[in-house]
Structures are given as C-alpha cells and as structure tokens.
Amino acid sequence: MRRIYLDHTATTPLDPRVREAMEPYLSEVFGNASSVHSFGRQARASLEKARTTIARCVGADPGEIFFTSGGTESDNLAIVGAARAARPAGRTHLVTSRGEHHAVLDTCEALVQEGYTLSLADLDERGKVRPDEIRALSDDRTSVVSIMHANNEVGTINPIEAIAASVHETGALVHTDAVQSAGRIPVNARGLGVDLMTISAHKIYGPKGIGGLFVRRGTPLDPVFHGGGQERGKRPGTENVALAVGFAAALEIACTAMTEESAKLAVLRDALAAAIRERFPYVIFNGDPVDRLPHILNVSVDSRKMPMEGEMLVMNMDLKGIAVTSGSACTSGSMQPSHVLIAMGRDPATARATIRFSFGRGNTEEDVVETVKALGEVLEQMTKV
Ligand code: PLP
After folding, report:
1. Best substitution site from 8, 12, 69, 72 to test ligand 1's pocket, by max atoms within 8 Å of Cβ?
2. First and final CA of the chain: distance in angstroms?
3. Cβ distance 43 to 37 under 8 Å?
4. Residues forming beta bridges with residue 144, ordered by sequence position
5. Pick from 40, 160, 264, 380: CA 20 to 30 A from residue 176's CA?
6. pTM of the full predicted structure?
7. Are the C-beta atoms of residues 176 and 183 closer than 8 Å to each other?
8. What is d(CA 280, CA 308) in angstroms, rounded to the nearest whole number?
C-alpha cells in the first residue's frame, strides 16, 4: 500500500541536503564549541555561521538568536525568563490567548502556580486574536504577552505587528510563537516588532531537538537553566553544532524556496478543499480563508448533520495509508475536543469530528485524488456503522 503523509504540521522528514550539511558534525568535526583549541574553534565557527544564517532568515542580528532544544523550550524560556526578570518591578501579570500551543498555555499556567496572574484572550470564529482585546487585557502590571504568529491546528495568522505596537504602550514585552510560520511565510522579527520569538527546525525539514529564541537586544530575560555560560548565559549546556548546522540549512532552503513552495502547497490544499466541498456537503472549514498558512486544511464534520468521532476517522484513514491528525487529544483517558476549535466557537461534538490535513514538499496532485477517494470510503463506512 502506498502511504501518503499529510501531517507536515506535526513534523517533516529531514531534507537530504540538510542531512548532508550535518554529516561532518556527526563524525570528524566533534569539538566542543567552548574549547579554545583548534577542534573547539572549528566547531565554534560553524555554530556562529549557523546562527548568522538563521538570524538573516528571520530579520534578526546573530547576537539576538539563542539555540534551544526546540519550540517547547523556547516558549518556556521566553515566558518564564521574561516573567521572572520583570517580577522585581511588580510586573506579575501575563496575557496569552485560548488558541495557543500547550507549550505556551501550560507554561503560563505553571507561572500562575508561582503567584503570577493570567488573562486569556478569546479567538474569533476564524481563529484570530483581536489586537484591541489584547490591549485591553494588558496594563502596567503585565510582564509578557504571548500570542502565536500562526496557529498550528487551523493555520490562521495573527496580526502580531498591531498587537506588539499596542502592547508596547504598556511597557510589557511581546513574545510570538513562530514555530509554524518561520520558513513557511515571510517572518521578520524586527518587522513584527516583537521582543521574543520562538522558532523550531523540525517543522521545516530540519532535525528534531533544536529550536531558537530571538531575544531583541536589551530585552531582560532570566535563564531557566543554570550551569555553564553557553549562549551568553541565557541557555547553558554544550551546544549541539550538528543540529544547529542542520537548522540553519533547513531554514535557508525553506526561505529561498518559500514563494514557489507555498504556491504549490496552496494549490494542493485548495484542490483538496474544492473536492471536499463538492463531495461532502456536511463538512465545514475551519480557519481564516485569507490570513492563513499555505499548507494546512482543517475541516470538521458538522455534528448536527452527521455524528462522527475524529479519532476514528484518523484511524480509518491510516488503515488506507493516509496520515492525518484529528482535532482531539486524549486527556485522562477520554477524547477531548481541540481547545482551539472550542475557542473558535465550534460545539464539542463537531470539534471532535475534525481532520487536519497538512501538505509538504513530497505531496502531489495524485495524493489529493487518493485522499478524497479514501475519505469518501471512510465516511461511507463510518456512517453505515
Ligand atoms: N509551538 C507550536 C505552534 C507548535 O506547533 C509546536 C509543535 O507542534 C511547538 C510549539 C513545539 O515545538 P517543538 O516540537 O519544537 O518542541
């Protein structure tokens, strides 16, 4: 059976060019980037070259990029680090939205346990955060406002520039999680006006286990880890040069190919959307029709017209060789609907009957045809049951 991977929002395969760029650092170039001898200096030079490439791709200075173990760690470092640094000044309030990734939501909740207060902004029906609501929730006690650039479930892109401009009137810092957008659409940290920005490699054909945090020069940020002085004391631990080199190669390829690639992915996404709209009238589309990532299509089966479990849909699609994701997550042994879709106003039953298709470099028009065929068979089989 031919397998079709339509879950590029979860992760992507390693690009062979990225693997090739990394290979020397998994064998002969093994020095510790902090060592003063030639082995160390060679590793250091490659690490700094990777940092410079990444900075250039996201509109930052190399000194503003800090390597971490991925998007989750960058979100934690940004929020915890900024909140702790602002605490002595009496800023103990945080703002985020109901649609954030758990790396942000759970980090904020953890800070609430330490005595911080938290305000949660709503999403509109297309999954967007409203700048006026964020401004109304922020004041001179707010330390950090964290709003994602593009949503990982529905692909909606938030107006970060407007949010950052209005939040800065209060003196609070602005963090954006750009894990899904960096390398997919133009992302410029300085243009967005943010103080902190999270990026990750494995969503853009880079290796897993490496990410970065943009920290605008002069932004107060306490480290979360303690130990050596690596990454200018903000993120101690011996640097993984191979992963950093892979991250830089992946981002450079993604940024160079971006226009062409996003046009191709949008064609596939729109072909799938059109076929679904024509064949399955009881399906509804989630996300913003304009401000969205090019590769994500998120649909729900309308529970008023046809009851359906998203997890079963995903399992049945997998039996047909097609890898997609549902909108639900298993929490305490039961299927919980996606918090993003609930925040967008979907009823729990419809939110549970959701599939996210996310396209990538290897997908073709034939994949779309096979996916529509499989979806038809699965839905028919499931409605009979
Ligand atoms: N933020 C968003 C929006 C994501 O989609 C993800 C991964 O799914 C993360 C953070 C976590 O990134 P990582 O897997 O690199 O820890």
Report:
1. 72
2. 25
3. no
4. 94, 173
5. 264
6. 0.97
7. no
8. 13
| 99, 298, 310, 356 from 126: Cα distances, Å | 11, 11, 20, 15
Over the stretch 324-362, which tens digit does the pLDDT of each residue have? 998 666 665 667 899 999 999 999 999 999 999 999 999
Place of tokens 């929730």: 137
Q: Is 211 in the pocket of ligand 1 (CB under 6 A)?
A: yes
List of E strands, 110-252: 117-121, 142-146, 173-177, 196-200, 211-215
Q: Give the atom of ligand 1 at the shortest distance from the alpha carbon of 75.
A: 10
pLDDT of residue 125: 98
Distances in whole angstroms, Cα of residue 290 to Cα of each of 7, 42, 158, 293, 294: 21, 46, 11, 9, 10
Mutate to test the pocket of ligand 1, among 180, 205, 293, 340 (most ligand atoms within 8 A of CB): 180
What is the Å distance from ligand 1's center to 100 Cα?
A: 10
Find out whether 371 and 322 touch, Cβ atoms under 8 Å: yes
Question: How many angstroms is it from 90 CA to the middle of ligand 1?
Answer: 30
What integer pLDDT is reported at residue 332 of this predicted model?
A: 57
Residues with Cβ within 8 Å of 263's Cβ and at least 6 positions away in sequence, in order, are 294
180 CB near ligand 1 (under 6 Å): yes
Which of 342, 345, 307 has its CA nearest to residue 327? 342
Substitution candidate for ligand 1 out of 69, 106, 185, 203 with most atoms within 8 A of CB: 203
Q: What is the pLDDT of residues 64-98, one digit of tens each?
A: 999 999 999 999 999 999 999 999 999 999 999 99
Find out whether 175 and 197 touch, Cβ atoms under 8 Å: yes
| Residue 238, pLDDT score | 97
HSE, CB side, 13 Å, CA atoms: give it for residue 241.
23
Where b means 16+ CB within 10 Å and e means fewer, 306-327 reads eebbbbbbbebbeebebbbbbb
Q: Does residue 101 have its Cβ closer than 6 Å to ligand 1?
A: yes
Minimum CA distance residue for ligand 1 atom 12: 71
The alpha carbon of 72 and the centre of ligand 1 are apart by a number of angstroms equal to: 6
Q: Can you give the C-alpha Rg of the chain in angstroms?
A: 21
